[in-house]
Amino acid sequence: MESTIYVKGMRKRTESSGVMGMGGFTAIEQCDLKRTIKLNDRKKLYFIEAFNQENEDLTGDEKDKQVLPSKQQNVNQKGGVITMWYSITDTGERKKMYGFTARHVWTSQKMKPSPDACSMKDSLLIKTDGWYIDLPQFNCPVGYHPERRANERTQPDCIDKYVMHRQGNGKLGFPLAETVIMIMGNSKDEVRTSMETVELSTDKLDSMLFEIPQGYELAKSEEELLDKMDVQEMMNNAVKNKQVSQPNEEKKAGTIRIGVFAPSGNDQVQSNLLQQHLVQQMSNSNIEALAVNSEEEAKKMNCDYTLSSVFTNIKQGDKAKGLLKAITRGDPNAMSSFNVQADMTLKTLKDGSVKNQQSLNGKYDGKIDEAATKALDEGCQRMLKAL
Q1: Is 237 within the bounds of a domain?
Q2: Predicted confidence (pLDDT) per residue in 295-319, tens digit
């Protein structure tokens, strides 16, 4: 998953791509207003979540086990105690990363719930190995516990108290690379995630990137904001893609038949889906298009032509400009764009001669597969006009 983070003053915007067929998300942390704005660009909705400013009990070192009474809990309220042991170690190693001096820091955090705790039932160990830099232009002094807020939404009558014991005098900062290992309870299995920065820019940013976009409406709840994964719809689409009609070997007189190869040249695009799309785009009352994997298969299916598509270059456009364009237009599809260069070639199968060739070179809005699809659609229109 790829994320882009924009920072300015006391505000941060995080735009993340989706996973598992679900849409991505955008979050704007307005530290000066002590709140986070969550956006759903597809639904044009936003939700506001205030920072949880209740300070957890903090002890200076591990030998101080004092548990102070919670300011939030009343006598009748349910909830237990989550005890956290947090250590931070600066290894002393330094290296230059994107023009900044990065610190090598290790952290370890163990969380252990009491038997009557609501938000977790088993202990959790989190170990982090990362490289961090100071960003003077970003300042967000207010801390909060998103996991606590999530629990308060699902169990408002049961709120846990957090007590932290801290060791070490190191400091973190803005992460440029991190490896996080999580171990639950006494399990021998671990979950490992890694993050690395692939690009860093110091360009000036427009303040509108850190505001609620014009035309967006306030969601009634965070649940309304979220996209739910419709597994059945995903399965139906998969079946639908597999059931694209495949003509028989015999063809009607006067019909042109084209064997369509899967586009090549770029591993980032979903070639099989683009191939099926090309089949649909190149088919009309006089033209029959079908997916083929080779010239031999095209000959077996009595094709007159073959259509090949090769992406020679796909480069992402300026993300900051795309975001501003999306905000101005109120169109989420304009948030990202790609410069696409591709060659489409229609060959006569009988003698291998080139019947028609189209060179595509343009900027197309949308994610990479959407942009690639729009470019190929343009090529298909030219091909059909020529035929």
Answers
A1: no
A2: 999 999 989 999 999 999 998 876 5
Q: How far apart, in whole angstroms, are the C-alpha atoms of residue 115 and residue 276?
A: 55
Residues 107 and 36 in one domain: yes
* Domain annotation covers residue 80: yes
Question: In this predicted model, what pLDDT tens digit does every residue of 193-202 receive, in sequence order?
Answer: 999 999 999 8
* Same domain, yes or no: 251 and 133: no
> Which tokens hold the place of 127?
């170990």
Token pair of 219, please? Answer: 């969601």
How far is it, in rounded angstroms, from Cα 3 to Cα 285? 44
Residues 137, 196, single domain; the answer is yes
Alpha helix segments (H runs only) across 165-247: 222-225, 231-242
Tell me the average pLDDT across 128-143.
Answer: 78
Tokens in use for 47? 């939700």
Co-location of 144 and 251 in the same domain: no
Regarding whether 133 and 29 lie in a shared domain, the answer is yes
Tell me the residue range of the domain where 269 lies: 247-386
pTM passes above 0.70: no
Residues 363, 219 share a domain: no
- DSSP annotation string for 72-126: S--TT-B--EEEEEEEEEEEEEEEEETTEEEEEEEEEEEEEE-TT-SS-SS-EEE
Residue 113: CB atoms within 10 Å: 18
Distance separating alpha carbons of residues 195 and 137, to the nearest angstrom: 22
Measured distance CA(86)–CA(63) in Å, rounded: 13
CATH number for 335? 3.40.50.10610
Under 8 Å between Cβ of 93 and 104: yes
3-state secondary structure of 305: strand
**HEC sequence for 286-298:** CEEEEECCCHHHH
DSSP class of residue 262 equals P
